[in-house]
């Protein structure tokens, strides 16, 4: 596909449906496309629960929300049929010069196949799996052009490389997420978020470690705030609030409200989870905790022309409080 004329008003459809961290890691892709094609109109198909994140990105023209997870559970219901038809009507509003599947799964391949292309439009996808990432071969069958990428590559870099090779531009040295949130209160400089919740138990940090770190930070003048995404996390937040002086449990919030609240804090310390990746996207001081070495694939990375405000710490069976404390001091130095 030849798209060298950067003034041409091309239409691009990005297909990245889930999950939270993966969606956040894809935000720099649309910023890259906009930087190289200022007149591009970039649409994105994403699961409804993550749509507010995509809508908050300044480069996005239109968000096409779907609920494939929910629809699969009630595939024959009338509501599912109506919702599916509404999704198809939304998807077919445009014909795209490039449809780019950045998920590499059967569900994303289906969406790419259903999307309409322009007369010269092409469908792009990854040609193969990369280390530590899921991949299903059907995505290559659907693609007109399969993009080769390095097998050992960060998830964010992989997406940026796929799009750059599809649309024939160089990956920018600047890394931007396009999320613009203003701090709402001046008192936020002393508020620090503990992101303790994660979808996998083996990613959790011990409760005693959170308590010790919270006590140190409390003595340093910080007020700890504790978000939660489900009942189990709420119970843990309540327990941590009892252990740490002046700690506060945040109420349940929508993802867009949560992003705004996080943006108005001094920073985040958290395990490998979607909220930790949002902290990176918001350019907050942040320490990301790993119990095994997958930080090379999903951890914070900087661009060639910015100072890192985020660090990852990896150790087995789990990083020490001293290690996390030391990296936090570096992040705020």
Care to describe what's here?
Strands 3-2-1-4-5-6 form a 6-stranded parallel beta sheet, with helices on both faces. Strands 9-8-7-10-11-12 form a 6-stranded parallel beta sheet, with helices on both faces. The protein contains 13 helices and 12 strands. α1 packs parallel to α7 (155-167). It is of the alpha/beta class and 333 residues long. The chain folds into 2 domains: 11-72 and 84-167, 3-Layer(aba) Sandwich (Rossmann fold), CATH 3.40.50; 186-332, Glycogen Phosphorylase B (Rossmann fold, 3-Layer(aba) Sandwich), CATH 3.40.50.
SSE arrangement:
Blueprint: E1 11-15, H1 20-36, E2 41-47, H2 51-55, E3 60-66, H3 68-73, H4 78-91, E4 96-101, H5 106-114, E5 117-126, H6 138-142, E6 145-147, H7 155-167, E7 191-195, H8 207-219, E8 223-226, H9 231-243, E9 248-249, H10 255-263, E10 267-271, H11 274-281, E11 286-290, H12 295-298, E12 310-314, H13 321-332
Parallel strand pairs: 1-2, 1-4, 2-3, 4-5, 5-6, 7-8, 7-10, 8-9, 10-11, 11-12
